[in-house]
Amino acid sequence: MNGVEFVDGEQCEEPKVGMVFKSEYDVSQIFNKFAKKEGFGIKKCSVKCDQDSVVKYFCLVCSRNGKHLSKGKNTLNPKPSVKSGCKAKINIVVRSVCDYVISKVLLINNHGLSPGKSRHFPSHRIVDLTSKRMLELNDRAGIPLVKSYRALTIGYGGYDRVNFGERDARNFIAESWDSRLGVGDAKALSNYFKRMQKRNPNFYHVLDFDADGRLKNLFWADASSRITYESFSDVVSFDTTYLTDCYEMPCSPFVGVNHHGQSILLGCTLLSCETINSYI
């Protein structure tokens, strides 16, 4: 296909005006993959919202966009900066929920590009799901992070093939510690769902608490799952045996089937017990 290449085994297409996406994540992915192939990083800027704080417009720009304003007192020896006023960017207009369209594309950089070193840019240092799972399992088993990361690099075939560094792995483990359910978990989870709903009003969630304020059951479905359900709700599977966490709460997904015969996630719930009331 014209304008389509592959980066790390994934399709990489050059962003063009008029392209439509279902979410901010999708449009960020295509620009991030293109930037990685070319050899520069990206970041988000120029966000504009309406009166209800719903995002209607934003830009994804080169990480060297903008001008550096030194805060050092010695004007003869300013602090170094990577900013060079690079104008490479794409503008995205949010027309409605699940309707993100590229309105402007400018792909000319005013600095040198480093495709071979692009994996070191913050926007490309991504800990994939498989690596996250392995790091977390090893951490729970008491295996030192250094050994876990070394095992990952061997599995990938060398340090140059890993899209994140040891510091990124350490940061992920620190975040996973914070997210593990403990004191205040229900409040933290509620706040997280509220942030998700503020980001996209079509995100839906319900939390069920007992008389002591402890979390009993919860359900959530993102905007994409809700739209998918409108088209593929003929067959829905509800499985309560998928996973049990350290709190012995079954993770029960609602799974449908699309027109290609593929399984699709329609929603998910955590249950305190498998009773009729919990199911309701």
Automatic annotation (TrEMBL):
InterPro entries: FAR1_DNA_bnd_dom, MULE_transposase_dom. Coiled coil: none annotated. Residues 31-114 form the FAR1 domain. Residues 235-279 form the MULE transposase domain. Pfam families: FAR1 (PF03101), MULE (PF10551). This is Protein FAR1-RELATED SEQUENCE.
